[in-house]
Structures are given as C-alpha cells and as structure tokens.
Design goal:
The protein has four domains: 65 residues; 107 residues, Beta-Lactamase, CATH 3.30.450; 79 residues, Signal transduction histidine kinase, dimerisation/phosphotransfer (DHp) domain (Helix Hairpins); 196 residues, 2-Layer Sandwich (Heat Shock Protein 90), CATH 3.30.565.10. The protein is built from eleven helices and 15 strands. Helix 6 packs antiparallel against helix 7 and helix 8 runs parallel beside helix 9. The protein is globular.
C-alpha cells in the first residue's frame, strides 16, 4: 500500500520571472540618446535632465507594475497548491469503501506513548469509534491494553498481531483485530495497519446456544422430575384410585403447560438475543400497538375484577423506530406482570407520553419511591416516546430492583400459586428494549405497587415541538 506523499514545502516569495529585457533595453536606449544629444550640444542641459528623470521613472513604474502582477499570480497559485497537498491520499477512496474499520498507525519512539497516532481512519473506523477526523492520537480512540501491545509489536518488532476487541456500552460488539507492520514512512516513522473484523453475530450465536442449553437443562429438570414421580405413582398404588388419578393428571397438565411456556420464552429470548446488535428500522405507532394489547387483555382484567386505565395521545403522535411484534411483546409482558400482581378492585395504569428527553423519560413519578434505571441507552441526545405501566400490587423492595431483569429471578415469596411464571418476562423486555436502543426504568413503593417505564427513540418528525400532547383517558 503506497504511503501518503509528504507535504509540499511552502512556496517561496516569487518576484517577476517574465521577460523584462525589452523594457530595460528601451529605457537604456532612451537614456543613451539623451546623453549623446547633451554631449553634442544639441539639447539643453535642463531639458536633458528632465528627460532623463521621465525615462527613468517610466521604466521604474513598468518594472514595479510587472513585479506586483507576478506577486499576485504567485499568491493565487499558493492556495491551489495547498489544496492539492491537503487532498486525501490516492488509496483513501478504496479504503473508505471497505466495510471493515481500518486504521493506519504511526509512531517514532517505543517509549513515547503519546507519539502513537492514527494517520488515516476510513469511514467504517470513524463510525465505530465515533470520531470526526481521519487522524489523531491513538489513545483517544483505543484504550485496550492487549490491543495496544499488539500494535506496538507490529510497529517496533515488525510482527503480525491478532486479538479480540470488544466495545463497551449496552450494545456491545465483538471484533477480531488484525495488526500488520507496514515498514517506515518517508519521515522515518514506523507504520502499522490495524483492521477490525466484526464477529458479533458469530459470538452471539455461540453464546445463545450455550445459554439456551444451560437454561433449558436447569429449568426443565424440576417439572420433568415432578412428572416422572406422578407417572410412577399412577402406575403403582394410585392406579385404581380415580380421585387421586384425576388430581395427579391435573397437576401433570399444569407442569406440562409450564414447560411449554418455558420453552416458548427461552426460544423467544434466544431469537431476540441473536439479533440484538441489529437495530430495527420500521416505523411503529406506539399508541396503536399498546391499544391492541389492552384490547386483548381487557377480558381477563374484567374477569379478575381489575380496571385498566389508559392515558395516551392521539394515534400517530408517538411513532418510534422499531419492530411492531417485539414492541407488542414488551407491552404484553408489562401489562401481564401488572395484572398478575393486582388484586380484586385494583387499577392498572397504562400511560404513553411523547417528545421527552432520556432524562425526563427515566424520571420517576413519586419522590418517595425506590427507583432504578435497569437499562440506559448509549445515545441520550434523542427524543423518546415513553410507555409507563403501573400497578397497585405488593411492590418490590429496593434490594430486589437490580436483579429484576435476570433470567428466572423471582422476588422471594412470589414464586408460587397464581403468580407462578417462567421468570423470563422482564429479561425479554430488557433485551427487546436494548435492541431498540431504548431504556428501561423501575420504581416501587412497598405495599403500594410498582411502575415500569420503557422509552424508545421517536421518529424525527414527531418531536416535542410538533407532537400533539392531548391525552385520551380510556377505562377498560
């Protein structure tokens, strides 16, 4: 790969370089003629002196004008030369077109850590590291010790290097970093080429497979053991006892249903995690999606004597970037959880707000509540639409809040009876919201209920300046 050409030296101050001999010859001839006429007495001395002054002045003026014109031409040429020297190297367009992030790194001394610079970064690298310039200090971009060691080996020991580089943030990505030495630049600096190959999806597939097998084997063991025990009992002394047989068959049906739900939730979670690093791109009306969930849950809420109260702006004013099926799944899980922990006569509040900042979206409703952000988006400068689901159930103690989105985690004392579940609902919510580059927060007061808030990036044309903030209250 050719190296960038060295910068051109500054153009020297140029005087006029055109053919001046006609001007000088004409002036010299005029002066000679006047002198000859004066010596021969054919011209008055005073007139001769005046003529000499006129000829000399005219010649000088011509020379000055020519010199200034040449300076102006030189000044006009210097910016063009500077622009030409600032042009990108010839290989820039080729590297910029590559999908993999690539950095060209330069360093002079092994002991000068601040002397390591990236002298070229292609478009993919600038996007990955969120930098605006194609050159700068390497430590401002990379801080991974293992990767920096590999870069040093390539720079000063001329050895190829390879390591795994994982980005930070909630949408973590995994890259295989490859370092290759490039010899010396024209100024004597050592050069190395650093490229990144995205292996996020491959690693995610491996992790998802391992997690699924571990979770399935662990969580299915208990209901399977229960089923095995009941089958042995029914084959033994309970074979002829119709009442016992019916009771055991009913319990077995419940366990089988629980295993089905568990497998469905595990499969759903695995699919979500597999594509979690790929942000959705469709437009979804959050109000319409939540309305579908409320309509579906309404009959069950009435059966349990629980009221659903919905506050939302008009449809179309809270549009978000997302996958509609997954957003419906988020709303469904939150409303199901609220319904599960609501008692007879309770009220579930479902509120949708539009045009909020990330800070306003994560702000709690009650100052006396225990509050925690379970997921915070990497970019908080956007505008968000918010879904808040509140119940009047037993609430959640402060010490349990950090673990609510763990797989299979259930608050002690809420693991049996009508509140049984797979323990994967909030984990699914968190991973879906993460895929949508949104946030998740919870607040709770013991004995008075809990509120879960999900906020998702809003479509640009529906920001706080244009959104209709009127709310419609619907009771189900």
């Amino acid at each position: 790969m050719p190296l960038p050409p060295p910068p051109s030296p500054p153009a020297p101050h140029r005087r006029h370089e055109g053919p001046l001999w006609p001007v000088l010859a004409t002036g010299a001839a005029g002066l000679t003629a006047i002198l000859v006429l004066t010596v021969l007495g054919l011209a008055d001395a005073g007139a001769a002196i005046a003529a000499l002054v006129v000829v000399a002045g005219a010649t000088a003026l011509v020379l000055i004008a020519a010199d200034r014109r040449a300076e102006a031409e030189a000044d006009g040429a210097e910016p063009a030369a500077a622009g030409a020297s600032a042009e990108a190297p010839p290989y820039a367009a080729l590297i910029n077109a590559l999908p993999d992030p690539i950095l060209v790194i330069s360093a002079s001394e092994p002991d000068d850590l601040t002397g390591r610079r990236y002298v070229f970064a292609n478009s993919a690298a600038r996007e990955l590291f969120r930098i605006d310039r194609s050159e700068g200090l390497l430590v401002s971009v990379l801080r991974d010790p293992q990767l920096l060691d590999a870069v040093d080996e390539a720079l000063f020991a001329a050895r190829d290097g390879e390591t795994i580089y994982e980005t930070g943030g909630v949408q973590s990505r995994v890259f295989r970093a490859l370092v290759r030495p490039m010899g010396l630049a024209l100024d004597g600096a050592h050069l190395a080429l650093l490229s990144f190959r995205d292996e996020t999806e491959l690693r995610q597939v491996e992790r998802t497979r391992a997690d699924f097998l571990a979770n399935a084997s662990h969580e299915l063991r208990t209901p399977l053991a229960s089923l095995t025990g009941f089958i042995e009992t029914l084959r033994g002394h309970a074979r002829a006892d119709e009442a016992v047989r019916e009771r055991f068959l009913s319990i077995m049906q419940i366990q089988a249903d629980r295993m089905n739900r568990l497998i469905d939730d595990l499969m759903s979670l695995s699919r979500i995690e597999l594509n979690e690093h790929i942000a959705p791109s469709d437009e979804v009306d959050l109000v319409g999606a939540v309305a579908d969930v409320v309509d579906a849950v309404g009959p069950l809420a009435r059966e349990r004597g629980v009221k659903l109260e919905v506050k939302a702006p008009p449809k179309g004013t809270a549009r978000v970037v997302g996958d509609r099926d997954q957003i419906v799944q988020v709303a469904q899980n939150l409303v199901d959880n609220a319904l599960k922990y609501s008692s007879l006569g309770g009220v579930i509040s479902v509120v949708i707000q539009a045009g909020l900042s990330a800070e306003a979206a994560a702000t709690g409703l009650r100052p006396d509540a225990a509050r925690l952000s379970l997921l915070t988006p990497d970019h908080t400068g956007e505008t968000y639409a918010v879904l808040r689901v509140s119940d009047q159930g037993p609430g959640i103690a402060r010490e349990h809040l950090p673990r609510l989105t763990e797989r299979f985690y259930r608050v002690e004392g809420q693991k049996s009876g009508e509140r049984s579940g797979t323990g994967l609902g909030l984990a699914i919510v968190k991973h879906i919201v993460n895929r949508h580059r949104g946030g998740l927060a919870v607040e709770s007061v013991l004995g008075e209920g809990a509120t879960f808030s999900v906020y998702l990036p809003q479509i640009a044309q529906h920001t706080a300046e244009t959104v209709d903030r009127r709310e419609t209250v619907i009771k189900v």
